[in-house]
Design a protein that fits this description.
59% helix; alpha/beta; 8 helices
Length: 314
């Protein structure tokens, strides 16, 4: 079968168009031969995001922005993302528009979520918009602006106070104060002159006082060993007092005093033999009578021993 020349030209033209279309998409980052996966995100504004901007995950490009357009019947913007990577993206992932440089370049970063179920082609991601550089600068500058305004207000108040203070009466008072200070300085100068004259007239006395101080210093130096001995004795006495356990001794003395107090109270109340002796007169009288009888018995035994002791030789 013979192929006509027209067919060959038409086939070559179609092939050239197909190759051109494929090459153009390839240069844009779209691979027509790989499996396509499209995701969507809906934004209120996109801040300069354009078609063919990069789609990134952790700094690695996985696709690009394929299409931008308004949602039907709404001012929201639908962004179609072409994903050429086979990475699994959880359903609760976030598509965040962020600035790639200071010149205003934009890209979409997919922040992976923690959902165990992966997203399917055609699903919609959670949309998020990074604050612009101007917003961040304004946020940093706003506190400084408020402080500057407060400082200006404070300076204005201070200046008002200064103006109200430094009126004519205040200036007169300041002039009088300066005159008083001048007079005080003159008095100080006069007093200084008087002190110089006093020192000049009392030089011999001052020399005598200095000599006495030298003598005292010499005596202290010559008795340095004695002073060291006294200090050593004080140190030894302090150590002895520390080792003596004075608190325990005082505690024991308190116990002994309490015991004596208890014995004294018992004696005063008539408890025990000693208490009876101190409080009961009859016991004393009985003891005195018994002692008197015993003396009489001993005296009778001395005078008449035969009455009590019998001697027998056989």
């Amino acid at each position: 079968m013979k192929i006509s020349r027209e067919f060959k030209i038409g086939f070559a033209f179609v092939a050239a168009i197909a190759i051109f279309y494929w090459g153009l998409n390839f240069l844009k980052g779209t691979d027509l031969l790989s499996q396509k996966r499209f995701l969507y995100a809906v934004y209120y504004k996109i801040d300069g995001l354009e078609q063919a901007n990069k789609v990134m995950i952790n700094g690695l490009q996985i696709g690009q922005v394929n299409h931008l357009g308004f949602s039907p019947g709404s001012s929201k913007i639908v962004v179609q993302l072409y994903i050429k990577s086979d990475i699994e993206i959880p359903k609760n992932s976030v598509a965040r528009i962020y600035s790639t440089n200071l010149l205003g370049g934009k890209a979409v970063e997919i922040i992976l979520g923690d959902d165990t179920k992966p997203i399917e082609s055609g699903d919609t991601l959670i949309a998020q918009l990074e604050r612009s550089m101007m917003d961040q600068v304004n946020e940093q500058v706003e506190p400084l602006k408020r402080k500057a305004l407060a400082l200006i207000s404070s300076v204005d108040s201070v200046m008002s106070v200064i103006q109200s203070i430094f009126n004519e009466n205040t200036r007169l008072n300041l002039a009088n104060t300066i005159d008083n200070i001048r007079n005080t300085l003159g008095n100080l100068e006069s007093a200084s002159s008087s002190i110089d004259n006093l020192l000049a007239t009392e030089t011999n006395r001052v020399n005598s006082i200095m000599g006495n101080l030298d003598s005292i210093t010499y005596n202290l130096k010559s008795n340095n060993e004695n002073i060291n001995t006294v200090l050593t004795n004080f140190a030894m006495l302090s150590d002895s007092l520390v080792e003596a356990d004075i608190p325990q001794t005082i505690k024991d003395a308190n116990v002994a005093i309490n015991n004596l107090k208890a014995i004294s109270e018992k004696i005063n109340s008539g408890q025990g033999t000693i208490g009876q002796l101190f409080t009961n007169d009859s016991l004393y009288f009985h003891l005195e009578e018994s002692t008197s009888n015993l003396n009489k018995l001993l005296e009778d035994l001395r005078v008449n021993p035969k009455r009590y002791v019998k001697f027998s030789l056989f």
